């Protein structure tokens, strides 16, 4: 039986994702910085950051 490898998502340096936040995610760099607060990963996928941004923007302000 042949094993099929799932495609591996590319990772990008945190600083590059923040610098290009408007082109990639349509948000200001500050939003990406806030969304990634507490996440110490130096390299992330676009999907991971998009999810973090969505969660960050849906968070209730207390």
Automatic annotation (TrEMBL):
Q: Which Pfam families match?
A: YqzN_YkzM
Q: Which InterPro entries match?
A: YqzN_YkzM
Q: Please report the stretch or stretches of sequence annotated as the YqzN/YkzM domain.
A: 10-60
The superkingdom of the source organism is: Bacteria
Stated name of the protein:
YqzN/YkzM domain-containing protein
- Source organism per UniProt: Desulfotomaculum copahuensis
